[in-house]
Amino acid sequence: MLNIILCGAPGSGKGTQSGFIVEHYGLQHLSTGDVLRAEIATGSELGKQIDTLISKGNLVPDDMMYGVIENYIANLPADCKGTIFDGYPRTVAQAESLTKLLKKYNMDAIMIDLLVDEQLLIQRLIERGKVSGRADDNLNTIRHRIAVYHQQTEPIAHYYLHHGNYYAVNGNHMMPDVFLQIKRIIDREK
Ligand code: B4P
User: Fold this and answer.
1) Domains in the chain, ordered, with CATH?
2) Average confidence (pLDDT) over 130-155
3) To 10 degrees, what angle do helices 92-104 and 156-163 make?
4) Mutate to test the pocket of ligand 1, among 5, 6, 14, 131 (most ligand atoms within 8 A of CB)
5) How far apart are CA 55 and CA 37, in angstroms?
6) Pocket of ligand 1 (CB under 6 A)
7) What DSSP assignment string belongs to 6-62?
8) How far is Cα 120 from Cα 138, in angstroms, rounded to an integer?
């Protein structure tokens, strides 16, 4: 089983590359961003709380995310070839929880970090904002999301470097070229 943690700043292409990986390798895909947006769409009380956090560009609390991941891993189909964790973990505490959870089910994961220049991130998200209708795809919120990324998410690279399962990918290139780099890593690891 091959589990992949896809990490990177907002707009680095996590969702985009997850799509290519799913198509090519037939892995399951868990996008925590999608899960949270689906909860918002239900109009539930929880969804309203999540909406307030996301639309300001903040992360939702670790304990809330833990429930989502635990439930997902516990219910994986028996024939699962592996999962792409797209956007999880986003904090060191989440990384520690995921390591423990995977261990509990005799699994592990590699971490692929999509590295993209800040100007390009902003440009991509502004472009996406023209069609996405996402409340967090506007310049002020994008800047805040990038700051949150540097503060809370970037340190997880050191966590995975320390654990020896970290791979960096240059995400500045065109989508197919980024996927080629990812493919080389996966083909070596699987
Ligand atoms: P996410 O839904 O994970 O999304 P994202 O970071 O905004 O974007 P992604 O990196 O997937 O970019 P995409 O491929 O779409 O998170 C949203 C919010 O949810 C977070 O801010 C947070 O509040 C919350 N959240 C999620 N997970 C959480 C967690 N674990 N803990 C706490 N809170 C959590 O690419 C962006 C655009 O660029 C697209 O339009 C795409 O077409 C374009 N693009 C991609 N690659 C390109 C390339 N190589 N060249 C040119 N354009 C490219």
Assistant:
1) 2-183 (3.40.50.300)
2) 96
3) 40
4) 14
5) 11
6) 8, 10-16, 31-33, 36, 54, 59-60, 65, 87-88, 90, 94, 124, 127-128, 136, 145, 174-175, 178
7) EEESTTSSHHHHHHHHHHHH--EEEEHHHHHHHHHHHT-HHHHHHHHHHHTTPPPPH
8) 14
What is the rounded distance in angstroms from the CA atom of residue 3 to the CA atom of residue 131? 31
Buried b / exposed e across 145-180, counting CB within 10 Å, b at 16+?
A: bbebbeebbeebbebbeeeebbbbbebeeeeeebbe
Atom of ligand 1 nearest to the CA of 18: 14
CA of 13 from ligand 1 middle (Å) equals: 6
pLDDT tens for each residue of 70-114? 999 999 999 999 999 999 999 999 999 999 999 999 999 999 999
Atom 52 in ligand 1: residue holding the nearest Cα: 124
